[in-house]
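Let's sit down with a protein and look at its sequence and fold side by side. We need material for that, and I hope you will provide a protein of your own picking. Once you have written the record down, we can walk along the chain together.

***
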Amino acid sequence: MRNPRFWIVLAVLAAASLACNALMGAGSTPQPAGGAGDTATLAPTDSGSGGGSSSDSEYPMPDNVSNFTDLGDGAVNFQTTLSLKDALDFYRDAFTKQGYKERAILTVTSDTTFSIVFDGHASGKAIVVQGVDLGGGSTNVNIRLEAVG
């Protein structure tokens, strides 16, 4: 591809994924507070480091969002308990229903990451959605507006 920024962002997300796995202990699965066998859904929260909440976002959000950070300039970052595939399917479906068009040539998926680009935002910029499997049932999602050539 001709956009080195895309590859830099993808590399940073992959590095963050590896760092989180190293810190959390790869393969360890956090147990919900209710004890073994109970399930919990994460409620939308504000991480406090960027302001705003997932309910303030202009982007569609899954029900299970944590560590939501509004990075400014149309960029947000958060974690979800959706699998990587489910997060990709969620955003593909949600943005398509809103009338945005996927730029399929820029869609990249692997076992641990995805990147998908949609055209049609009022700003004239593309909506870039990237996800990284953090392990332990958590997926990091980053959504931003970007001038993609």
User: Anything to note?
Assistant: Helices lie at 4-24, 84-97.
